[in-house]
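Quick illustration, no need to memorize.
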Amino acid sequence: MTYTHVVIVDDEVDHAVISRMVLAQVAPGLAVETFTDLVGLEVRLHAVPQGALVIVDRMLGLVESFDLVRALTRVRPDLSVVLVSAVLTPEDRGRALESGAVAAAEKPGDLEAWRAFFRGLLSGAGGGASAALGGVA
């Protein structure tokens, strides 16, 4: 699938800004939104353009995002949701997929790894999300 719109959901503003900047390098002209304010988050997510890629941090505030992913994918099955975190256990990956995420991955550790991560997600090639995440989808 080729994405024309990406939404980054991360309450850590620096992470959201870095993601947006790297996406601008990888895919100039791609529409990218960052949602860093958790107030009204579900309403804003329900209004994103059809077929968008939504990248959600596993921890938003002090709450895990699995229920958010589940609720979003139930209401908006057209969205591709990827759950990311600094650390993901195999159980976390399984919970993400069970919640409706198309993939789950640990956040890359450097800018080149972020570029490769986003290129893989945006490639549109079959298994793009899986390839971007080192085969974890």
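Confidence is low (pLDDT under 50) at residues 125-132.
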